Amino acid sequence: MTKTKNERITTLENEVAELKLIVHELRGKKSIESSTILEDIIEFEGQQYKKVDRKGRKGDVVIFRNNNTRFFTNGVPYKVAANGRPVDNEKEAVSPLYHDGFGRTPETVDVYELIEPKPLTQNQQRAEIIEKAKKFVEKVSSQQSSWAVNENGNETYQQKCTFNDFIINNEKRTVVVLVKGEDSGKIFEKGIAKCNPSDVFNEHIGKAIALGRALGLDVSEFEQVVQPNEVVVGMVVETFINIEEHHKTIKVEKVVKDSYGIKLFEHLQTAFFTPFEVECGDKISNDTYAKYEVSSNE
User: Please, which of 108, 167, 188, 291 could form a disulfide with 176 given CB 3.0 to 4.6 Å?
Assistant: First the structure.
């Protein structure tokens, strides 16, 4: 369906706003009280807003250019409350947004609406959980060895000073942890995490699950982690190489995109790029050393 002129204009305006946002992030942030202003993009209370050509409403941020009352300062952003009135310098929302006598008209009030963050891709979600798993193991391990008073978990976690001995088996796709006494070396607890055949193995997630199970801690977030769906450098994949080799497990060394936008990857055994084709039986088997891109919403 052919877009109308207004629809095309709106699309272009949104693209321009996104480009300005990228420039804003690259240049760094300059604070103006609780906000940052750069052309048509502002940051207010940790969120980003883009300038729009309409009247202000609930949830918007507004900037006055011709206000003549003490309740608002020109050039400073204010949030529009649920009642449609901006929160003023006295932290109240009783003054009307527009008032000709106060110099606040649609022509002199700049309106900004919230830029909704783009949803994370499966790879980005996966990367976030992997980082959480690393921090979980680090935090729990430090508490085990410090005689810290722990309210959650089992008796070993709450009352004993212990350390962890992890056993990683990449072939069997398992992680085992032996929780041992710091002085005696006695094994108090044992936890096992075995990767589902249909899931991607990750050592860090496996460690978090095994340790949580050994100490009676909630690790459901790691047990239900989303699976990656795009190949990145560092992953181990099972892929169709050629007729002679058929399926082979290899480590991805480099990823590029062809002219159609299809991701191709290269590994040490070949000097050419090959596409990752799920329909041909290709699958990611291990992402312990995957170099995921940092989430754009962080």
Answer: 167
- When computed from its CA atoms, the radius of gyration of the chain, rounded to whole angstroms, is 27
Going along 231-286, which residue ranges are E strands? 236-240, 247-251, 254-257, 263-266, 274-275, 283-286
Q: What are phi and psi of 13, to 5 degrees?
A: -60, -40
Query: Tell me, what's the pLDDT at 145?
Result: 85
Instruction: Copy the structure tokens of residue 237.
Output: 């994949």
Q: In what order do the strands lie in the sheet with 35-38?
A: 35-38, 41-44, 47-52, 109-114, 61-64, 77-79
> Region 191-199: what's the mean pLDDT?
96
- Looking at residue 2, its pLDDT comes to 60
Structure-block tokens of residue 203: 């050592």
Q: Which two tokens stand for residue 35?
A: 């906000």
DSSP state of 225: P
The letter for the amino acid at 240 is: F
Regarding pTM above 0.70, the answer is no
CB 295 within 8 A of CB 132: no
